[in-house]
Amino acid sequence: MSKVNPILQSEEKVDITPMIDVVFLLLIYFMFLPLTQEADIGIRLPSNTPPAENLDLPSEHIVDVYPNGLILLNGAPMDGVDDREMPRFTRTLTRLKQSSDRAGIDTVVKIQADPDSPHQRAIDVLNACAKAKVKKVSFAAYGQ
Questions:
Q1: In this predicted structure, what is the pLDDT of residue 8?
Q2: What domain range is 108 assigned to?
Q3: 76 has which bridge partners?
């Protein structure tokens, strides 16, 4: 008869009973977890809610003029600080005017020039408004 080493016998046997217990506990835990979470959330779904009204385009567009000559239209930088013609700014104003005209809204441009900004840049903005055929232009105190 061949003798089997007792160390080899113990390595071959793996008791999986504790692992099965843990799996069952996790299964029970995850089965009941969603039920308690859903019960705590008080969501009321809308019923027969009318659709939201169409929002109008903004009628007022804000142009910021900075001391270095930078021009921002509604927070977006426009042409270079040395560009007197400002073609991008003029095209953008023209598109905004056309969109507002189609919607039946007046286009208003409010210029907010920094007190230290060159006055020529405000004149450049006025010229671009004239090219875009925007007639309603006003000045506002800087930062308002």
A1: 54
A2: 60-140
A3: 73
CB atoms within 10 A of CB 127: 15
Compute CA distances 21 → 26, 31, 63, 105, whole Å. Answer: 9, 15, 69, 71
pLDDT digits (tens, 9 = 90+) for 5-51: 655 555 677 788 989 999 999 988 887 776 555 555 666 766 776 76
Count other C-beta atoms under 10 Å from residue 142's C-beta: 15
Q: Is position 22 within any domain?
A: no
144 in Cβ contact with 115 (< 8 Å): no
Residues 41, 34: Cα–Cα separation, whole Å: 11
CATH at 112 = 3.30.420.270
| Residue 36 placed within a domain | no
Number of domains in the chain: 1
Residue 19 lies in a domain: no
Alpha-carbon distance of 136 to 110, in angstroms, equals 9
